[in-house]
TrEMBL record:
It catalyses: 2-deoxy-D-ribose 5-phosphate = D-glyceraldehyde 3-phosphate + acetaldehyde. GO terms for cellular component: cytoplasm. The active site is at D90 (proton donor/acceptor), K152 (schiff-base intermediate with acetaldehyde), K181 (proton donor/acceptor). This is Deoxyribose-phosphate aldolase. Pfam families: DeoC. InterPro entries: Aldolase_TIM (IPR013785), DeoC (IPR011343), DeoC/FbaB/LacD_aldolase (IPR002915), DeoC_typeI (IPR028581). It comes from the Bacteria. It is found in: Cytoplasm. The lineage of its organism: Bacteria, Pseudomonadati, Bacteroidota, Flavobacteriia, Flavobacteriales. GO terms for molecular function: deoxyribose-phosphate aldolase activity. NCBIfam families: deoC. Belongs to the DeoC/FbaB aldolase family. DeoC type 1 subfamily. Its EC number is 4.1.2.4. Pathway: Carbohydrate degradation; 2-deoxy-D-ribose 1-phosphate degradation; D-glyceraldehyde 3-phosphate and acetaldehyde from 2-deoxy-alpha-D-ribose 1-phosphate: step 2/2.
Length: 219
């Protein structure tokens, strides 16, 4: 296993996050050499300035947290974020389209965002807490078919985050080339390692420092 810090997207997506909070997040990411910071789009230029001499990547969210805005809005948001220096985009799937069985529209939307950002990494959040096992499988396959790089479990704003059972369901539904990001409720080393052992390539968490220190975050 690689060092656990290299799996972590050090995350701060609260609506109340201040400039000082994001500055602290970026400084922590440099200190602990996390893979990336995951922040709201407004703060991408700030993160780009703070992290420009480091190896830490910048991840931002698109269509967050509901995924229910127009495709054009998501495309613009993604293009804007990349233009300001984001390396990765975590996009929320339109669950209404999934529930309505408008699967081609759903795939087209994801593919359009991926085409917009090109070689930059696209993770698609399928918000598994609202889906049946069958829907998780369908959603995961659509994400892969659309050309995205990762299936991501959760926004962290739903009633439940990741679980090992959900990750196993996603893993069964996609090819070995496709990657998985688990997020939501990952607060200690044991939990983080369990996901990595299952095959997860990235962890979204605001508890990265506690995980590295072998403690359990109360956040």
């Amino acid at each position: 296993m690689k060092p656990i810090n290299s799996y972590i997207d050090h995350t701060l997506l609260k609506s109340t996050a201040s400039i000082d909070d994001v500055t602290t997040l970026c400084n922590e990411a440099k200190t602990y050499n996390f893979f990336s910071v995951c922040i709201n789009g407004y703060y991408v230029p700030l993160a780009e300035e703070l992290l420009k001499n480091s190896q830490v990547k910048i991840c931002t969210v698109v269509g967050f947290p509901l995924g229910a805005m127009s495709s054009r809005a998501k495309i613009f948001e993604a293009e804007d974020a990349i233009g300001y220096g984001a390396d990765e985009v975590d996009m929320v799937m339109n669950l209404g389209l999934l529930k309505s069985k408008k699967l081609k529209l759903l795939e087209t939307e994801i593919a359009s965002v991926k085409n917009t950002i090109g070689r930059k990494v696209l993770k698609v959040i399928i918000e598994t807490c609202y889906l049946t096992s069958e829907e998780i499988s369908i959603a995961s396959k659509i994400v892969e078919n659309a050309g995205a790089d990762y299936v991501k479990t959760s926004t962290g704003f739903g009633p439940k985050g990741a679980s090992l059972e959900v990750v196993s369901e996603i893993k069964k539904s996609i090819s070995s080339e496709m990657k998985i990001k688990a997020s939501g409720g990952i607060r200690d080393y044991i939990t983080a390692k369990a996901y990595i052992d299952l095959g997860v390539s990235r962890l979204g968490t605001s508890s990265g420092i506690a995980i590295l220190n072998g403690k359990k975050s109360l956040l």
